[in-house]
Structure to design on (1266 residues):
């Protein structure tokens, strides 16, 4: 890791001023930035530690019943917040299925949104990668790519976004509050993670010096609390990134879906908000064929970016299952293995 | 089985301390953080070293920006092939069967990605790390040869360390073509990496021509000789300390290049130097389990009797050295067959050289053999356990020799009963749990040889009634310090809390190799004999001393127990060790002992630990994520010195079986040859949630031939059998036979 | 850039000059303060060997800059036992053989202490397994680890007079 200056500003304004200088980067929980610095993918010469900035570690319920989550709220803290997890159980479940307890205690809400792809070629500075080094090419395209994107990719970049947290957020229409050298602005979460284009590799839609200060969930997002699930398929029972995941949130009246919120994870360079499938589900009966059809609609545009056609089948099935589980109702408590297909509430006790 | 064992001299008995489920002697040190691993050493004037890793798999380094590295603050020295001091031995030479060709900056050639190509020494770890990055090597690159298709095939002269690459008995072709049922199985296994939690580490310090090194090592005296050889000093000038090893699994038995570089650097900068591998550097110069491609054919008669068994294996090795995973030989000693063929071929690829990794050969081979056996049982329409019993080998199938002891039948029975195997439906896809998950039950047979190594130990009886026992044993988690101390205590006839057990450095007599599951037997035998010899000397003193109540008892008429000698024919006449020494005016009395096996028994008997493993898997019927919900094994491995620790070793091995079956896979980019998952997020090993129910049962076994103490090993057998059991359970749940490990979701989806 | 940080480590207040901003909390503890009980297994937050409590919460010391822990309260394995009296989690690890080589053990124990104080797992072995899955044990002492944490939880809830 290169040498850098460490700066701990006292206010958001100071932070933005410091971070607007060339070569500066914001440091929050450090679980992604420090890792990228260690492997030589990030090399800031000024690190702006924003973890102590006042007012960014709060969860506020606003008058219009929306909720505002400060960017420095830690993942574990948010997941365990009683009022929050009651209102947004799928978000809690997604958070608790991500990384490890230690990482969740350090990682922040803002940092999770800023998380970089886990594409092995992005992480290897010796490989060609348009996302890391624009214009250099993409070694994943003809490389080992069984876990890469099946939606929204172009030959410029086939990487996926690794976050669990962002999947239900995208479905629920989260809004990101941003401070920057040009003042404040806010954007939809969907717009934060730019898909690759014919020339560009996509990436995070923040200008240099901009920082995320908060995340808002609209009031109507709380209306799905009774039927909310996150389901994450992975190749190890815990502490693994998703192969495919899905958030499914339903609002139901007597077996009929009045509103649906759906997103897929680990299938694209952004959490994939499946709006067509949501529209399709509105007014439909909550039953297996309907869910399968909705999942088909969500994956309609999918195509393999490499040796990963199986992910399309899997994503369709994961979403179908997530919808089925959501329709059954949110469990009283986040399952022992959050978001796992292995739902048993009680563990085997042979070794206990 | 007898609960005591007497040495020929008859003074001491194994059984007072041995066999007890004692907790670990090093427990408090390990739970309080005071156990000192190599990287925990911080001598004065310590400098830190980091090596630069090759970013290509084949070619030459044509430039290094040494200037940039040197101008980084706190960097002390940069070592490259241009300024590297000469070594006394050629790193490309092989001085003995346990030496590997190593990379010690001998030239600018790159033979695999991750190879050390330069070393940066600095005042701080941070500066050394950045200095290595700043070297920004440029290469003259040749195309990488990665994977079975792209490597160079050849016929290996040996497999494993000196193992036979081919075996044939009977007439396979006739047996197979005359068989009523014929099956074939193809099974691939990937490259796997040891990934001990403690990365390889060394702290090296020179004092004139004397070298002190702290480094985790499984064969301390062997390593001492090797280090001394490279630096042209006598072995006694090397002090090697390895009191705690943070996991070895085979990767810390053999000297590796980075250790040589650190020692070299310490001499160049004339300061102590610490070098600790980063996790990504654990995927190159420190060995791995080579990939295999295996093909099996089995023919049986209508009653399920095997008539012909063939096991062919191709294994990958490096372009410059040979370690061939002897997978095919896993079929030589397990199932009876009149015709058995095993054959190996090899492929050279541009990776680091493989090496022994927990159950080398047996793990990969058993993972394939047990699938083939299950397919054969299926072809006959027979329960897999019944099929295995039908083909139970009463004598060693390869050699025809009797087994020194074999209690596999008892293992099958015990584990099957505990598992509930008798309720298993024969056909696959029949079982579901309450959540709708597919459930499958599978089994595998486990086997591992019982080798022994030359080992020495010293026992010293002291006038204060305690004993000092010494051997250079290596505790890498198997519990050697505890089990060996238990044996040693029996050897000197004292309770274990009255012995001082010293181990883990070259200051002690050579305990041989902690490997091959032979350490407890080898070093334990030496300790027991040393103790027995010391007690015999004490008995000689007492029985020849007219003032002793034991006077005239004669050597064979005395027994040792709890620090006293008793007349065998009159328990009321006894004397403490302390009193005997005091009267003789001696502070201490000591003796050496050595471990070993009666060569006549080695000739006459086949010696193995055995076991049976039963697996239950749960699989999502649509999404195919797999979890091993139960894994129950029963093992017979001769005398168990400490059942508490033996069970931990066995369950640890079984969980390695879960990793082999479902997780572990080293992936290289076929173009660059660089590893793509050289970290613990990408290279999955099991986590706690992957092992909800893993249980090892012990079967009593009296093996009178394996060695004087009747000890076999438990370190490696747990992984064998378990892998196949899980694959067979996956078949039983889904009806799909897998053809490669690890078993991925997409393999079941298709 | 040279900084100076003050922090409390195992109850002791320390002022540490920090000559290199790159130093992580893990390297600060091991190489500067000399507390080597906290181990480096991967240095990338992927194994849990470096787990310590930061202001009472378990974190990976390898992904924490030393500069950023200025003013915090750090507890490491060295601060767990009271003199010769082991913490109940430490004692339970010995009793249930929750380790083999011992290298990941200090991180496992700190993680277990963090888990118990979080209070989410209770006496449910499945929640304990999940809650301990951020700590890799290559020796795979998981059955013993789970049993040890369950036992420590039981002792803790008994001594608190609560039932779970």
């Amino acid at each position: 890791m290169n040498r850098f200056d460490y700066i701990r500003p006292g206010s958001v304004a100071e932070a933005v001023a410091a971070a607007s200088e060339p070569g500066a980067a914001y440091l929050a929980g450090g679980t992604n930035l420090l890792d990228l610095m260690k492997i030589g993918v990030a090399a800031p010469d000024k690190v702006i530690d924003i973890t102590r900035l006042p007012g960014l570690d709060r969860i506020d319920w606003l008058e219009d019943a929306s909720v505002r989550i400060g960017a420095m709220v830690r993942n574990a803290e948010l997941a365990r917040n009683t009022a929050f997890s009651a209102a947004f159980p799928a978000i809690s479940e997604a958070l608790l299925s991500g990384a490890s307890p230690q990482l969740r205690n350090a990682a922040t809400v803002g940092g999770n949104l800023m998380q970089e792809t886990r594409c092995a070629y992005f992480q290897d500075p010796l490989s060609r990668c348009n996302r890391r080094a624009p214009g250099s090419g993409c070694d994943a395209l003809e490389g080992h790519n069984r876990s890469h994107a099946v939606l929204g990719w172009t030959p410029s970049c086939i990487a996926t976004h690794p976050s669990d947290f962002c999947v239900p957020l995208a479905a629920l229409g989260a809004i990101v509050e941003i401070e920057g050298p040009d003042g404040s602005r806010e954007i939809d979460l969907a717009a934060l993670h730019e898909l690759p284009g014919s020339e560009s590799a996509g990436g995070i839609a923040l200008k240099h010096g901009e920082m995320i200060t908060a995340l808002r969930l609209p009031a109507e997002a709380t209306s799905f609390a009774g039927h909310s699930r996150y389901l994450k398929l992975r190749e190890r029972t815990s502490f693994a990134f998703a192969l495919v995941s899905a958030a499914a949130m339903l609002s139901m009246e007597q077996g009929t879906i009045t509103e649906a919120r759906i997103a897929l994870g680990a299938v694209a360079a952004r959490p994939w908000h499946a709006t067509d499938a949501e529209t399709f589900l509105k007014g439909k009966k909550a039953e297996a064929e309907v869910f399968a059809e909705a999942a088909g609609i969500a994956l309609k545009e999918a195509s393999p970016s490499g040796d990963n056609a199986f992910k399309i089948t899997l994503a369709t099935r994961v979403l179908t299952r997530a919808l089925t589980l959501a329709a059954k109702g949110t469990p009283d408590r986040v399952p022992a293995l959050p978001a796992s297909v292995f739902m048993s509430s009680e563990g085997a006790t042979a070794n206990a | 089985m007898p609960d005591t064992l007497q040495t020929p001299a008859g003074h001491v008995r194994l059984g007072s301390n041995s066999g007890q489920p004692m907790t670990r002697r090093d427990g408090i040190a390990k739970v309080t953080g005071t156990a000192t691993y190599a990287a925990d050493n911080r001598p004065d004037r310590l400098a830190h070293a980091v090596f630069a890793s090759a970013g290509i798999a084949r070619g030459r380094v044509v430039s290094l920006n040494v200037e940039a590295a040197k101008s980084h603050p706190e960097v002390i020295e940069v070592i490259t092939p241009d300024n590297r001091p000469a070594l006394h031995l050629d790193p490309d030479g092989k001085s003995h069967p346990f030496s590997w060709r190593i990379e010690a900056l001998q030239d600018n050639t790159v033979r695999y990605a991750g190879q050390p190509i330069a070393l940066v020494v600095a005042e701080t770890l941070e500066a050394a790390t950045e200095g290595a990055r700043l070297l920004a090597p440029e290469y003259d690159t040749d195309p990488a040869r990665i994977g079975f298709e792209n490597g160079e095939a050849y016929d290996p002269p040996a497999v494993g360390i000196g193992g036979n690459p081919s075996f044939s008995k009977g007439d396979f072709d006739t047996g197979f073509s005359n068989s009523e049922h014929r099956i074939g199985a193809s099974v691939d296994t990937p490259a796997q990496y040891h990934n001990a939690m403690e990365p390889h580490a060394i702290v090296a310090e020179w004092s004139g021509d004397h070298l002190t090194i702290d480094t985790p090592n499984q064969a301390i005296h062997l390593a001492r000789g090797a280090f001394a050889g490279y630096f042209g000093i006598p072995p006694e000038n090397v002090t090697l300390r390895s009191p705690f090893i943070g996991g070895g699994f085979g990767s810390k038995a053999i000297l590796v290049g980075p250790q040589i570089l650190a020692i070299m650097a310490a001499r160049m900068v004339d300061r102590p130097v610490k070098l600790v591998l980063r996790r990504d550097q654990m995927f190159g110069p420190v060995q791995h389990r080579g990939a295999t491609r295996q093909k099996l054919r089995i023919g049986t008669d209508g009653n399920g009797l095997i008539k012909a068994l063939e096991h062919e294996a191709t294994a990958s090795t490096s372009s410059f050295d040979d370690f061939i995973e002897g997978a095919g030989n896993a079929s030589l000693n397990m199932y009876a067959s009149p015709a058995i063929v095993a054959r190996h071929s090899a492929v050279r690829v541009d990776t680091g050289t493989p090496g022994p990794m927990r159950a080398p050969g047996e793990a990969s081979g058993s993972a394939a053999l047990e699938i083939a056996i299950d397919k054969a049982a299926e072809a006959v329409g027979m329960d897999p356990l019944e099929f295995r019993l039908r083909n139970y080998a009463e004598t060693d199938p390869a050699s025809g020799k009797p087994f020194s002891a074999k209690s596999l039948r008892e293992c099958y029975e015990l584990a099957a009963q505990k598992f509930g195997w008798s309720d298993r439906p024969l056909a696959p896809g029949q079982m579901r749990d309450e959540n709708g998950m597919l459930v499958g039950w599978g089994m595998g047979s486990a086997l591992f040889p019982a080798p022994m190594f030359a080992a020495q130990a010293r026992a010293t009886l002291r006038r204060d009634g305690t004993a000092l026992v010494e051997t250079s044993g290596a505790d890498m988690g198997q519990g050697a310090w505890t089990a060996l101390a238990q044996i040693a205590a029996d050897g000197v006839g004292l309770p274990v809390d009255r012995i001082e057990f010293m181990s883990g450095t070259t200051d002690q007599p050579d305990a041989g190799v902690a490997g091959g599951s032979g350490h407890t037997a080898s070093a334990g035998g030496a300790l027991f004999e040393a103790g027995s010899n010391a007690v015999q000397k004490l008995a000689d003193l007492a029985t020849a001393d007219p003032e002793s109540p034991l006077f005239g008892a004669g050597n064979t008429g005395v027994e040792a127990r709890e620090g006293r000698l008793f007349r065998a024919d009159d328990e009321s006449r006894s004397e403490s060790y302390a009193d005997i020494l005091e009267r003789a005016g001696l502070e201490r009395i000591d003796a050496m002992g050595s471990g070993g096996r009666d060569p006549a028994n080695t000739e006459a008997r086949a010696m193995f630990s055995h076991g049976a493993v039963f697996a239950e898997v749960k699989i999502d019927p649509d999404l195919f994520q797999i979890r091993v919900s139960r894994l129950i094994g029963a093992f017979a491995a001769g005398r168990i010195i400490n059942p508490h620790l033996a069970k931990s070793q066995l369950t640890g091995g079984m969980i390695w079986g879960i990793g082999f079956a479902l997780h572990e896979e080293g992936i290289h980019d076929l173009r660059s040859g660089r590893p793509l998952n050289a970290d613990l997020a990408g290279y999955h090993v099991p986590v706690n949630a992957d092992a909800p129910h893993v249980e090892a049962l012990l079967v009593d076994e009296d093996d009178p031939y394996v060695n004087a103490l009747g000890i076999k090993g438990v370190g490696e057998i747990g992984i064998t059998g378990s892998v196949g059991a899980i694959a067979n359970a996956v078949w039983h749940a889904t009806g799909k036979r897998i053809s490669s490990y690890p078993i991925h979701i997409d393999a079941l989806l298709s | 850039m040279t900084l100076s940080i003050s922090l409390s480590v195992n109850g002791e207040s320390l002022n540490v000059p920090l000559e290199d901003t790159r130093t992580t909390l893990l390297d600060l503890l091991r190489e500067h303060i000399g507390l080597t009980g906290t181990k480096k297994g991967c240095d990338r937050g992927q194994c849990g060997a470096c787990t310590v409590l930061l202001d009472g919460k378990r974190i990976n010391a390898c992904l924490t800059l030393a500069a950023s822990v200025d003013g915090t309260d750090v507890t490491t394995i060295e601060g767990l036992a009271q003199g010769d009296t082991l913490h109940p989690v430490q004692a339970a690890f010995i009793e249930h053989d929750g380790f083999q080589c011992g290298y990941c053990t200090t991180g496992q124990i700190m993680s277990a202490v963090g888990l118990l104080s979080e209070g989410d797992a209770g006496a449910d072995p499945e929640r304990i397994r999940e809650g301990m899955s951020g700590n890799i044990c290559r020796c795979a002492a998981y059955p013993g680890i789970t049993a040890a944490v369950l036992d420590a939880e039981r002792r803790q809830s008994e001594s608190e007079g609560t039932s779970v």
